[in-house]
From TrEMBL:
<dbReference type="InterPro" id="IPR008927">
    <property type="entry name" value="6-PGluconate_DH-like_C_sf"/>
</dbReference>
<dbReference type="InterPro" id="IPR006176">
    <property type="entry name" value="3-OHacyl-CoA_DH_NAD-bd"/>
</dbReference>
<dbReference type="Pfam" id="PF02737">
    <property type="entry name" value="3HCDH_N"/>
</dbReference>
<feature type="domain" description="3-hydroxyacyl-CoA dehydrogenase NAD binding">
    <location>
        <begin position="1"/>
        <end position="169"/>
    </location>
</feature>
<dbReference type="InterPro" id="IPR022694">
    <property type="entry name" value="3-OHacyl-CoA_DH"/>
</dbReference>
<dbReference type="InterPro" id="IPR013328">
    <property type="entry name" value="6PGD_dom2"/>
</dbReference>
<keyword id="KW-0560">Oxidoreductase</keyword>
<dbReference type="InterPro" id="IPR036291">
    <property type="entry name" value="NAD(P)-bd_dom_sf"/>
</dbReference>
<dbReference type="InterPro" id="IPR006108">
    <property type="entry name" value="3HC_DH_C"/>
</dbReference>
<feature type="domain" description="3-hydroxyacyl-CoA dehydrogenase C-terminal">
    <location>
        <begin position="172"/>
        <end position="268"/>
    </location>
</feature>
<dbReference type="Pfam" id="PF00725">
    <property type="entry name" value="3HCDH"/>
</dbReference>
<protein>
    <submittedName>
        <fullName>3-hydroxyacyl-CoA dehydrogenase NAD-binding domain-containing protein</fullName>
    </submittedName>
</protein>
């Protein structure tokens, strides 16, 4: 999702630095942005110039490149140990006045703030997939997040052409506290053979006029992200209604992650 954030920034005239763990991952990011720009070019009026947009994006494995950044949007996987280490490094490298926006599905923004020396400058910024096509962002106020940080986050999003809804900090916030439970229950329906995947999704699309069913949405987000998020909710609330479906765990173990692996509840070319 970080690629989508970088693309949205570059499309609106900003320079973006994409930092990831290896050159191979960064190469996949370049291809993903190329494909993303092709999709946007079909709908964006006036048309964008893909070469101009990509020229504004730098790819690197070196965190030191962020020493000049004016705003950081973190998009690390939903594993607390990994996120905590990333924030420790960001805190050392970035300028003191820089705001950290956590693009997380479920982890508490207050907890993330506690991993830094600047909890007042940490805010949640929950983007939706695909980022360049979605106009709304769920913004989360942590316990120590100041009004100035919230205003900086709103300005940042407005410059990207996006609106936002501010909510209070709670694991899963509003969107994923509801969505992850829905997707997990849809996987239970599939596991219990109540209906096939296409039938589950068709009920949501035809009866409720949703654009996508819950299992199609899971494939788009990534089944590993769904599993990690529901595990965070289960651990945070200590409530069995968030217990991960065994079929979801099995699919993640098998590498069936959805669109990004080419196979989830559906197959992709």
């Amino acid at each position: 999702m970080g690629v989508g954030v970088a693309q949205s920034l570059a499309q609106t005239g900003h320079r973006a630095i994409v930092v990831d763990v290896s050159d191979a991952v960064l190469e996949r990011a370049r291809k993903e942005m190329k494909n993303g720009l092709r999709a946007v070019a079909l709908f964006k009026k006036p048309a964008i110039d893909p070469r101009e947009v990509t020229s504004r994006v730098t790819y690197t494995t070196d965190y030191q490149a962020l020493s000049a950044a004016s705003f950081v949007v973190e998009n690390v996987t939903e594993k607390w140990d990994i996120k905590k280490d990333v924030y420790r490094r960001l805190d050392e490298i970035c300028k003191p006045e820089v705001v950290f926006a956590a693009n997380t599905s479920a982890i508490s923004i207050t907890k993330i703030g506690s991993a830094t020396k600047r909890p007042a400058q940490v805010v949640g910024m929950h983007f939706m997939n695909p980022v360049p096509m979605k106009p709304m962002v769920e913004v989360i106020r942590g316990y120590h997040t100041t009004p100035a940080t919230l205003e900086a986050a709103k300005r940042f999003l407005a410059e990207m052409g996006k609106d936002c809804i501010v909510v209070e900090d709670s694991p899963g916030f509003v969107s994923n506290r509801v969505l992850m439970l829905t997707i997990n229950e849809a996987v239970f329906l599939l596991q219990d053979r109540v209906a096939e995947a296409v039938e589950v999704d068709r009920i949501f699309k035809t009866c409720f006029e949703h654009k996508m069913g819950p299992l199609e949405t899971a494939d788009l987000i990534g089944l590993d992200t769904i599993l990690y998020s529901i595990e965070v909710l289960h651990e945070s609330f200590n409530d069995d209604k968030y217990r991960p479906c065994p079929l979801l765990k099995k699919m993640v173990d098998a590498g069936l992650l959805g669109r990004k692996s080419g196979h989830g509840f559906y197959r992709y070319e």
